[in-house]
Amino acid sequence: MAEDCFFSDKDTLVIKPQKKNPLLLRMIMLALVMISGVYICSVCLKQRRISFGPNLMKVDIVEQPCPRPNISQAEVLFVHYPQPTTYRRNECRCTPVRYFAILSMQRSGSGWFETLLNSHINVSSNGEIFSVKDRRSNISSITMTMDKVYNLDWFSSAAKNECTAAVGFKWMLNQGLVKNHEEIVSYFNRRGVSAIFLFRRNLLRRLVSILANEHDRNLKQLNGTHKAHVHSKDEAEVLARYKPKIDATKLIRTLDENDKMATDALEYFKNTNHIILYYEDLVNNRNKLMDVLEFLRVPKMKLVSRHVKIHTRPLSEQVENWDVISKSLKGTKYESFLNSDYQM
Ligand SMILES: *[C@@H]1O[C@H](CO)[C@@H](O)[C@H](O)[C@H]1NC(C)=O
Ligand SMILES: *[C@@H]1O[C@H](CO)[C@@H](O)[C@H](O)[C@H]1NC(C)=O
Ligand SMILES: *[C@@H]1O[C@H](CO)[C@@H](O)[C@H](O)[C@H]1NC(C)=O
Ligand SMILES: *[C@@H]1O[C@H](CO)[C@@H](O)[C@H](O)[C@H]1NC(C)=O
């Protein structure tokens, strides 16, 4: 804008007054030049005020740019410098932040896994935020909720005073994730969100955990409160006493459905930046957790959780109608679920 004005000023001045003209004519010319000059300048000033106003306000807020981290071009999409609206990051302002989401299914160890991640000083995982129906009722609610989390404006017990270098939350496949997968995949790829898949290989054990958890939800065995996770061996012992009876007629179908749900989710999200973890692998080898820290590009450190595993005994001791169940799985692709146990 300013340049346009400058040039038109020049054009006006280029008009040469002719020598023969009397003084009056010169005066008129001069007056015309002055008037047009004043007009052009006033228009210019008005435009300046309009186009520069908001920018001036921005200058106030924008601080020194952070030094660019030394990363490859492919990584740039995944490095963020969020500016929360509710507080200032102060000395953490230039700590780059990675966005992640733990994608899992109920009773697959994600509660335990999340407490492990949250024991890292630079990781904040905000829990199962989409367990609240309103937040997942449509894609705009989902997007708004994620924007808030990734802008570091979401407050939960996981919020850190330390410099957060990875922020995320836990999301169950049946909480609007599979249903809205197209939009969510595009959000992940647009905003550089990394997916951490956490599945359980032994879906029969998962089923036992679901039924036992359901049972406790009704009976509230620990002094009248329902606990999905426990922090002591005694509590675990109380909850593990219950042996569910599994409906053998529906078993194969249930396992098929669960298997398909996980397979489909992996297919939908295959083009996102992701890592796939299995609960059994993490239990058997804690070093696997370091793969996750590497994936999130946060410093490696020991992770701890107070969670105590509830079902530790062989499955045969934890299912009421074991004979029927083992017979119905023999010779199927799920037969291995009957044997594979923990090396704990
Ligand atoms: C950036 O990283 C590469 C390898 O990761 C290294 O060779 C290079 O020296 C680094 N540059 C700076 C300025 O630190
Ligand atoms: C999306 O869901 C929220 C919360 O349930 C609701 O307030 C909003 O009107 C919905 N928006 C659309 C576009 O349906
Ligand atoms: C982790 O947090 C500490 C404490 O706030 C901070 O000094 C450090 O720079 C952070 N590390 C990373 C990689 O962000
Ligand atoms: C239940 O209450 C008893 C006595 O008040 C206490 O000793 C015990 O630790 C409690 N158990 C649990 C699981 O909270």
Topology (SSEs and partners):
Elements: H1 2-14, H2 23-61, E1 98-104, H3 110-118, E2 123-125, H4 139-150, E3 166-172, H5 173-177, H6 181-191, E4 193-199, H7 203-219, H8 233-240, H9 248-268, E5 274-278, H10 279-284, H11 288-295, H12 322-329, H13 336-339
Parallel strand pairs: 1-3, 1-4, 2-3, 4-5
The chain binds 2-acetamido-2-deoxy-beta-D-glucopyranose (4 copies).
One 2-acetamido-2-deoxy-beta-D-glucopyranose (NAG) binds at residues 222-223, 235.
Protein name: Sulfotransferase
Transmembrane segments: 23-45
Keywords: Membrane, Transmembrane, Transmembrane helix
Polypeptide structure, described:
This protein has 344 residues and is an alpha/beta fold. The chain has two domains: 60 residues; 267 residues, Rossmann fold (3-Layer(aba) Sandwich), CATH 3.40.50. Helix content is 47%, strand content 8%. The chain has 13 helices and five strands. The protein has a five-stranded parallel β-sheet, sandwiched between helices. Helix 4 links the parallel strand 2 and strand 3. Helix 1 runs antiparallel to helix 2. The longest helix has 39 residues. The radius of gyration is 32 Å and the shape is elongated. The N terminus is likely disordered. The site of one 2-acetamido-2-deoxy-beta-D-glucopyranose (NAG) has 3 residues, from loops.
What number of structural domains do the residues give? Answer: 2
What overall form do the CA principal axes indicate? elongated
Bound molecules: 2-acetamido-2-deoxy-beta-D-glucopyranose
Low confidence ranges: 1-17, 49-60
In sequence order, what are the helices and strands, one letter per element? HHEHEHEHHEHHHEHHHH
Largest sheet: 5 strands, parallel
Give the CATH level 1 class of the largest domain: Alpha Beta
Q: How many strand segments?
A: 5
CATH topology of the largest domain: Rossmann fold
Count of separate DSSP helical elements: 13
How far is it from the N-terminal to the C-terminal residue, by CA?
A: 73 Å
Using only CA atoms, what is the Rg?
A: 32 Å
Report strand %: 5-15%
Backbone structural class: alpha/beta
Report the CATH architecture of the largest domain. 3-Layer(aba) Sandwich
